[in-house]
Design goal:
β3 (68-74) and β4 (83-89) form a beta hairpin. Helix content is 56%, strand content 17%. It has helices spanning 3-12, 19-33, 51-62, 93-99, 124-138, 157-168, 190-199, 203-253, 261-272, 278-285, 289-308; strands spanning 34-37, 43-48, 68-74, 83-89, 103-106, 109-112, 139-141, 150-154, 175-179, 182-187. It contains 11 helices and 10 strands. The protein has 309 residues and is α+β, with helices and mostly antiparallel strands.
Amino acid sequence: MSFAEKCREELTRIRLHDEAERTAQLCGLTMTAGGIRLFPKPSVFYQTESLTVAKHIAALASADHQLETLIERKERESRRRPIYSVKFGGKDSEPYLYKTGALAYDSEGVHVLSTVPNVVFASEETKRAFLRGCFLGGGTVVDPKRSYHLELLCKSDTVQEAIVSAIEGFGLHPRVTNRKERIVVYLKEGDDVTGFLALIGANTAALAFENVRVEKDMRNYINRTNNCETANLDKQVIASLKQQAAIRTILSKMSLKELSPGLREAAELRMNHPDATLAELAEMAGIRKSGMNHRLMRLLELAEESEKN
């Protein structure tokens, strides 16, 4: 089972005891997974690849409406997974269209799957329920082991604006793009994805997501630290080799006794302790690190001068 499927399974186990929240969640499902048949009479249907989600839609809709429910499984040649269609009939089927936003009338005419009912924005909980329905109907989330990405497919600009407004109202940062004539609202930052999952009630998934983030961040930190230490070690080895080569050049031209006491001490320490760090050499000499660095730099300069003469 994929990470996204586990999220949907968790969300379908949430029990809503408030009719407004159930309606708001059905609005989200209708705006993402719903469709309309106008003949012989208007009716709504839903399509999903998850049988669990299909059963959830049927149970949610039947809680407040007298509906005749039919769930059909359809095989598809182009895909390995079947699709499940949820169809409603009965005396409440037409009122159900208007209540969930599948159909709407105003002075401009008839609107199909493009008008978000006011119940969605009635409270913080109805907004959460609406976003939960949007995820169940048209959402997916990538396994955090691969990357941080969550998206919701929308059927219209009006639905997209409602989703973005609701998400932003909870302090998250959605983005919008178009893909194959569909509008996509998506989240890319790890904090936003975790926040959205917790927001819609997928707390177990949010915790699992955050655990993976912590593990990845720790691995990245260790890798950066190791890389930094390796780079510093490489610089230290290269500097030591240059200093030893410079001292040998000086010795080919003169005796160490001809150097000042400080330079002679630095040269002897470096040749006797080729693997020692600058700080360790300074400690041996009983001087500051900057002082030892100055002496070694002077030895390099003397080596260059002796090669020119």
